[in-house]
Write a structure and sequence with these properties.
Layout: H1 12-26, E1 37-42, H2 48-59, E2 63-67, H3 80-90, E3 94-99, H4 104-108, E4 118-124, H5 130-144, E5 151-155, H6 162-173, E6 177-181, E7 194-195, H7 199-203, E8 208-211, H8 225-232, E9 244-246, H9 259-262, H10 269-291
Parallel strand pairs: 1-2, 1-3, 3-4, 5-6, 5-8, 6-7, 8-9
Helix pairs in contact: 1-10, 2-10, 5-6, 5-10
The structure holds phosphoric acid mono(formamide)ester.
Length: about 290
């Protein structure tokens, strides 16, 4: 693959190769790409993904260009294709893109650019966030060894979540037993997803509990936060003692998870996820820079 667009397009072998490379970077592998040039094009807000990619690029000795949408010529009516084409002519060849638009990278990769380019999906609409799913998978196997036959419970706003969709695709591919728990207004038809509306029933025997943020910015109509908190918030009372607690971030304290749990030892995995994101992104960039493919 010249581009990273969706988890669904990665083979199991490609996923394992990325994980092995991430492990190597985490244990001190060194690479240096001073002649590589990559742009961060974030059309939606981000903290973890954006800084994690920037940090990964800097650790790889590559050159990073942060695209400032508000100051770019897109505000003068230039189409994204033309913007990228001109940037490729200038010498940038890797584009890390976060966008609201579904399937943007699938569309871009079909076009002919002035010079060869690589695209990496840094979160697309509500459909895909492949590097998040890879870093979540890396974090789970670091803690549990494997996801095969492990019960992974995804809690919250599944409907608007690209993280949920990419995680379901990856976890099912690797043999996990995935259960989603959400009120009806946060449920959506996702292939292979089984819903258990009652949170306590869903959490029985959970190996991993993955919470999601309520995506207020994508809601079609207002929901009752109090009702959500009453029925779906993870707390000391309902979180299984040995379960791995995860959240892709940003966390809304006391909405998805109580503050005391976030600050407890079980809450530390959330920071492991952020830490591992750098190594996953180094692994992906290293493959693109070295081999021209993932
Ligand atoms: N998990 C995640 O994508 O976080 P950001 O929106 O801060 O990048």
């Amino acid at each position: 693959m010249k581009h990273l667009d969706k988890i669904e397009n990665l083979t199991k072998e490609e996923i394992q190769n990325i994980i092995e490379a991430a492990k190597s970077f985490k244990t001190g592998k060194y690479a240096n790409y001073p002649t590589r040039h990559a742009a961060l094009m974030f059309f939606e807000n981000s903290t973890r993904t954006r800084f994690s990619f920037e940090c990964a690029l800097k650790r790889l000795g590559a050159n990073v260009y942060v695209f400032d949408t508000a100051k770019s010529s897109i505000t003068k009516g230039e189409e994204l294709f033309d913007t990228i084409n001109n940037m490729s002519a200038i010498g940038i060849n890797t584009f890390i893109i976060r966008t609201r638009e579904e399937n943007l990278i699938e569309k871009l990769k079909e076009k002919n650019f002035y010079k060869p380019v690589h695209f990496i999906n840094a979160g697309e609409g509500k459909s895909s966030h492949p590097t998040q799913a890879l870093l979540d998978y890396f974090t789970i196997i670091e803690h549990l060894g494997s996801v095969k036959n492990k019960k992974v419970v995804i809690v919250g706003d599944i409907k608007h979540s690209r993280v949920a969709r990419s995680n379901v695709a990856l976890l099912k591919k690797e043999g996990a037993d995935v259960v989603c728990s959400a009120p009806e207004y946060f449920q959506d038809n996702i292939e292979g997803v089984y819903y258990e509306k009652n949170l306590n029933n869903a959490l029985l025997g959970a190996d991993v509990v993955m919470c999601l943020r309520i995506q207020t910015e994508r809601l079609e109509k207002e929901i009752s936060k109090d009702d959500y908190i009453k029925n779906y918030r993870i707390s000391k009372e309902n979180l299984p003692e040995n379960a791995l607690l995860m959240h892709p971030g940003p966390v809304n304290r006391d909405v998805e998870i109580t503050s005391d749990v976030i600050d407890s030892s079980q809450g530390k995995t959330i920071l492991n996820q952020a830490e591992n994101g750098v190594y996953i992104r180094m692994a992906i960039l290293d493959k693109i820079f070295k081999e021209g493919r993932i």
